[in-house]
Amino acid sequence: MIKKLLLLCFLLQCTISYAETIKTDVLVIGGGAAGVAAAIQSSRSNLKTMLVEQGPWLGGSMTSGGFCILDANRNVKTGIWAEFRKHVVNFYKKTPGYDTTQNAVLRFEPYTGAAILKKITDTVKRLTVKLNTPFTSVKKDGTGWEVEITVDNKPVTIKARVLIDGTETADVATMAGAVFSTGTDSRAATGESLAPETATDQIQNISFLAILKDNGRAADRTIKKPEGYNPETYSCLKGIDIKKLLNDSKILNDKYLLNCCANQYPVTADALKPENRAATFAKARLHTLGMVYYLQTVLGYKNMSLEEYLTADHLPYMPIIREYKKAKGIIQLTLSDIYTPYDRPTKLYRTAIAVADALQTQAYGANGAIVNYPPLPAYTIPLGAIVAANQSNLLLTEKALSVTHLVNASTADPAVQMTLGQGVGATAAYLAFFKTDTKNLNVRIIQGEVLDHKGYIFPLADVAFDDPYFRSIQQICVTGLLKGIQKVNGNSAQIYFGPDAPVNTEDIKPILTETYTRTFLWFNKNKTAEKFTLGNLLSFICEITLNDPETFQATLQKTWKTKYKFKTDFDVNRPVTRYEFAALTNKFLNPFARKVDITGRVIN
User: Fold this and answer.
1) How far apart, in whole angstroms, are the C-alpha atoms of residue 494 and residue 484?
2) Entry's Gene3D superfamilies (predicted)?
3) Does domain 18-175 fall into CATH 1.10.357.140?
């Protein structure tokens, strides 16, 4: 009898021990814009995924932080970001005055944004989401990771092949032992002409945003005077047209997002360390409450009340943290990679796993002055920037991304981070599926997975996903055969493909030579004009594929408008259009299949 009891106790203990350990392929800690998108993508790529969020909402800064007016990535309807955007627009489309135009600024109430993300994740197979769940430790476990979380006040161990840091403050990567830098980078270190000559420890301000509701002119919703309130602190509002500020900040349902000079709170990297964070945030909350009180009492907007959040002061659960510390990745993305991607020794655009079309926010240059950027073009985020340099199978998002201080001002945008998260999720799925580590990344397979799930790997504003040659054009552009065309619009610049434009011979010759060994022979045998003709392209394809030129041309001519759906006439003597070149080159030569390394160099 005693032996049976001992056996029963042993079996019970084994069951309890087993229940305390969860195994998953991919673990995402942090349910911000990037983290939630990464978890969705990893799961849709058929990998078992767990998403752990310490707070009550998904969405991070754009929901829990109240940053719910998004003007980034309006021109690139890519993947999960486009899906979220569509859900928001459909939810509000019957609301009077809501702008549903294709590239309108996206506006939503934070709670609604969080609810939409939760609804999406609830429908994704192989995805487990745990809210209000803190994590307490992170350590290496062979080629994978072991993380301890707390569920119902009890410790639970999660073992995962791949770990993604989706926190806003790089806490996971910090515990995992990643290497970081903080502050502005020196010009010598990054080669950025806008960077200061010497590095500084200055980082961008944080902000507790205020979601305000207009209760009608007669209402008085004045809050209690905050501790330490000093009206001079908010003097920057004196020179601002408040009516215009509120109009520009209107969400809907008589709600406004106040995000301006008056609620920015200066911090240092030390102030954001975990042990100092609570005290820093408490002071920042008081600072924003003071702004609200100033608005109500000095500027006469006593009818405005704080709304949306169930916190004691009705401010968001978290502040907007624009910058904290940047991890050292395999690759660091610099402004030069954004402004002149084709002129760099590295060709990082070839390794893109996400796109960004965002107005830059505040960044510091020489002597702490605010940087005046030239118009910032849409750009790509390379695979190497999400991979921690010194820790295998640790992927980075949010402010931990391996970028310079000047680039961070754009990549920190939630709309960019959601797009980035999809690429991170595809990368994690690759690592887990092939049971490999971050030393053995296959750029083209990961990019293919992003494309399979309606994501962009090149930020074209004039070729939509439903175009029959969308994938071909995306793939040709990341090889560099056809370059994006920048068009300035205010303080940003969109990237266009220009499908009807002719192909310049001098543009494609260097890339063809790099990619195909027989290119040199073909150009020696064939005289080409400034504009590459359709006949040139067909001849080159036959040279590389060893097809019979007459048979190939006859077949193509016969099916030009029926099979290939080209609207132009078949004429071998005219310049080939970029659209035709992308479609035919991708189909018959498939340069995208040529492997590239993490720097974008073609591997022969």
Assistant:
1) 9
2) FAD/NAD(P)-binding domain
3) no
Cβ(325)–Cβ(230) below 8 Å = no
Q: Which amino acid is at 488?
A: V
Q: Is the separation of the CB atoms in 379 and 337 below 8 Å? A: yes
For CA atoms 142, 145, 148, 152, give the dihedral sign.
negative
SS (H, E, C) 17-79: HHHCEEEEEEEEECCEHHHHHHHHHHHHCCCCEEEECCCCCCEHHHCCCCCCEECCCCCCCCH
354, 397, 430, 391: which is closest to 164 by C-alpha? Answer: 397
Identify residue 277 by its one-letter amino acid code: R
Instruction: Please list, in sequence order, all residues whose beta carbon lies within 8 angstroms of the beta carbon of residue 441, skipping any fewer than 6 positions away.
Output: 383, 387, 427, 430, 431, 598
DSSP string, 91-110: HHTTSTT---STTPPEE--H
Contact 487, 493 (CB under 8 A): yes
Q: How far apart are CA 300 and CA 292, in angstroms?
A: 11
pLDDT tens digits, 60-93? 999 999 999 999 999 999 999 999 999 999 999 9
Which pLDDT value is given to residue 364?
84
Amino acid at 331: I
The model's pLDDT over 506-539, given as tens digits with 9 standing for 90+, comes to: 999 999 999 999 999 999 999 899 999 999 999 9
Q: With the C-alpha atoms ordered 451, 494, 496, 104, is the resulting torsion angle positive or negative?
A: positive
| pTM, full prediction | 0.94
- pLDDT (tens digit per residue) in 430-439: 999 999 999 9
Tokens read off for 600: 């974008």
* Inter-axis angle of helices 534-545 and 549-559, nearest 10: 130
Residue ranges covered by each domain of the chain: 18-175, 180-193+326-457, 206-321, 460-604
